[in-house]
Amino acid sequence: MPITDPKNAAAWNWIQDILPDKRAQHSRRVAELAYELALFHELDHPLDAYLAGLLHDNAKYDTPETLAARGIPPHLCRPSLYDRYPNVWHALVGPRQALSITTNTRVLNAMRWHTTGRARMRPLTQVLFVADFCEPNRDGAWHAVARQSAYENLDKATAIIAQLLVHEHGDQCFWATQACLNDYRKRPNIGL
Ligand SMILES: [Fe+2]
Ligand SMILES: [Fe+2]
Fold first, then answer.
1. pTM more than 0.85
2. Residue 91 alpha carbon to ligand 1 centre in Å
3. Ligand 2: centre distance to CA 6 (Å)
4. Mean pLDDT for each 10-residue chunk of the chain (192 residues)?
5. Mind listing the domains of the chain with CATH numbers?
């Protein structure tokens, strides 16, 4: 079981300490789906997918002030990003706060782009982006479409999710999500 891996067990303890139970359970479900997708698509480091899933939302309930109070240098707390994109902010600062748990750059990179996606993602980053969107408790029709596509064609699942996000946020969409859609909609066999 990936949760019994020592790094993952330490991460799970930390996440249970700092996040409300509902968010911790979401993190666990994302970890399990990301791990399953990593195995299914034969990624090189499937346990990284599990760890990234556990850690991805660690800063979800933080603010630049709470991060600074924990000793993170103020310029790394990115207050202007928080003001402009409060829902994206936790993804971009979360890796800094998780350095006490892991310095694995593959994991940190995946965490950084889990909310927005981006162009030219590494497979691990893509798996986390997709797993966060379609973990089993997300029960909308599009979540089911993305979940099925996640096994058939990871690029297609990525493009579907990016398109939904661009549609949802319109002119206010974060630049990386638009770049994600522009990239993945052009990949083979996408059909968008
Ligand atoms: Fe998130
Ligand atoms: Fe999440």
1. yes
2. 6
3. 22
4. 89 98 98 98 97 98 97 94 97 97 98 98 98 96 96 97 96 96 95 81
5. 2-184 (1.10.3210.10)
